[in-house]
Design goal:
With 195 residues, the chain is mainly α. It is 64% helix and 9% strand. The protein has 2 domains: 60 residues, no CATH class; 88 residues, Winged helix-like DNA-binding domain superfamily/Winged helix DNA-binding domain (Arc Repressor Mutant, subunit A). Helix 1 runs antiparallel to helix 2, helix 3 crosses helix 6 and helix 4 packs across helix 5. The two termini are 19 Å apart.
Length: 195
């Protein structure tokens, strides 16, 4: 009779003697051992996880390289690209606290990048009142020029990589990706659910 696996926190229990904790254990030990024990379904799940995480990591690396390469042409950091696009979406400005949410970055990273962008003349703070974190930050004219450059380059890149998709395929792809991201956010906050 096949054993029913169970999850507890970040540990997968396959039997009384086989417990797997963490991604490293899954990738380096679990998949071959599970396969030998006849847990073919688990191998498929782990291979899907490995493929998914590898593809997503690769996409992220390539995006960061493209941002870095394009922004360096103008003497800016690649990290500025995401913030410049965020400011385009919020032309009335936003606070550093809001940028943390919009860009999914921590307070220290946002503070550092905003300060660097301010030094380069891309953004300005308004109404600081001794609270830089809550000041409204907007693009300067130079910042708007840089942001529009990033938007044009981002549009060209998205068009180049997605030109073989139909509108329906693109819509389904982004819908699925957003659903996966939302579920992963919950799991990262609350842990893997019990079965």
């Amino acid at each position: 009779m096949p054993l029913k696996p169970s999850f507890r926190g970040n540990t997968l229990k396959l039997s009384d003697n086989i417990h797997i904790t963490g991604v490293v254990a899954i990738v380096t030990y679990a998949v071959p051992e599970i396969d030998k024990l006849g847990f073919g379904w688990a191998v498929k799940v782990f291979k899907r996880f490995e493929q998914f995480s590898s593809v997503i990591s690769g996409i992220s690396r390539h995006i960061q390289k493209i941002e870095r390469d394009e922004m360096e042409k103008y003497g800016y950091k690649g990290a500025f690209a995401q913030y410049l696009l965020a400011f385009l979406r919020y032309p009335q400005g936003c606070t550093a606290a809001q940028l943390c949410e919009i860009c999914d970055k921590d307070k220290a990273a946002v503070s550092r990048i905003v300060s660097e962008m301010e030094e380069k003349g891309l953004v300005q703070r308004h109404g600081t009142n001794d609270r830089l974190y809550n000041a409204c930050i907007t693009l300067t004219e130079e910042g708007k020029t840089a942001a529009n450059f990033v938007r044009r380059k981002a549009t060209a890149a998205v068009n180049a990589v997605g030109n073989e998709m139909t509108d329906e395929e693109r819509s389904a792809f982004y819908s699925n990706l957003e659903s996966i991201a939302a579920k992963l956010q919950i799991i990262s906050r609350e842990g893997i659910p019990e079965e």
